[in-house]
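Q: Got a minute? One more chain.
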Amino acid sequence: MKKLALKIDVDTWRGTREGVPRLMEALKRHDAGATFLFSLGPDHTGRAIKRVFRPGFLSKVSRTSVVEHYGIRTLLYGTVLPGPDIGRREAALLRGVRDAGFEVGIHCWDHIKWQDYVTGKDAAWTRAEMHKAARRFREIFGEEARTHGAAGWQINDAALAYQQELGMRYASDGRGSHPFQPLDAAGRPLGVPQLPTTLPTLDELIGLDGLSNDNVHEHLLKLTEAETATGHVYTLHAELEGMRLMEVFDRLLDGWKRQGYQLVSCVDLFDSQDLANLPSGRVVMGEIPGRSGTLALQA
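A: Always. Here it is, folded:
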């Protein structure tokens, strides 16, 4: 059966406590698996205001209703209001996700800090941030994390290498078309295999080319009509599909099931691959339509 993996990025405290339970209920209703990737440290969403100077950021904000989706209070965390410690406050909820049968992994320690700075930082800074997230994951779940999905699809070679040291099986840190083994600049294997996101996200599509909340699911379903040998990975957000875009997500799940997809976790899709013969390639930074700035891409 052809497979489509659901990768859920949980960026904020509000997304954790409100979006995650709603997504769990929706997934159970559709008999779907998924991978939840958690932000485990402080919610400093308000510090994203610095991105206002990034090309394309204001246009994205205006068409995706950031205030509506995230809420005023969340947009003040880390500036006017102290950033709540997500992992400490919501440890029981996070364990409940795992206990309900969903795969869980690391998104980041501090989402804004990682997304805004990791590509320009050295190995020591990178390892320190990842170590904090790995330690908190172990405190919450009593076991090591086996997967990682970089916040904002921002990554560097030091992070890719450290994932292997942390004992992870695979990661989903960037965008691409099929699973692959990353290489360093010298062409040597780097870190663990990557299972990249293969489909655009709702916030990249809504507001462009006539796409709206009412019809964006039709566009995505057209992209998945043709079967691929290695399946698809769709990234959703607890703050979007788990809240005001839940109806869109329901329509997508219905449509994918009609297309014959088994909706699974990332590890289920990963385990279905020919792991002994994965292609290899570099992870590079580049741009994609609908998203401001650069992000990790499969070369």
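A: Residues 30 and 284 are 36 Å apart (CA to CA).
Q: Perfect, thanks.
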